[in-house]
Amino acid sequence: MKYEIKELPEVRVAYLRYKGPFGAAIGDFWKEVFTPWQKAFSLAGKVTYGVAQDDPSTTPASESRYDACVEVAAGYAVQPPAKEAVIPAGRYAVYSFKGTGDQVPAAWGEFFGQLHAEGKADAGACFERYPADYAMDPATGVFESELCIPVKA
């Protein structure tokens, strides 16, 4: 897998949390819960992030947490049910993913495996970053995002 090493800035986000098994249910959460909330609070057309709070290989599926996030300005007042968080600045390996939702877990697995084998992976938040003009091809379900994993300096 080809990836780039990038210095990413700190990002303030508003998020809604999904709890349960990773996979197709996360896509449903984005579509049925997060996107309607995002539109209702005039936060559409902004960079979004998906942050896995737990390692699905060591956390029971029913307890796995995933945050669907959207960038917000410093002065934006985050209102319930959303919560506020910060995605930390740092050095990340960034892989440009293009595929369908059901291909995401395998891409993460391969990317993690490669970085661990290279001795580059570091502790910290791993996330998916979706562009402000995110679009999914309705016919194929294909979309583009970036998979970001912290790496050692």
Automatic annotation (TrEMBL):
SUPFAM superfamilies: Probable bacterial effector-binding domain. InterPro entries: AraC_E-bd (IPR010499), GyrI-like (IPR029442), Reg_factor_effector_dom_sf (IPR011256), SmbC-like (IPR050908). It holds the Pfam family GyrI-like. It comes from the Bacteria. This is AraC family transcriptional regulator. Residues 1-152 form the AraC effector-binding domain. Coiled coil: none annotated.
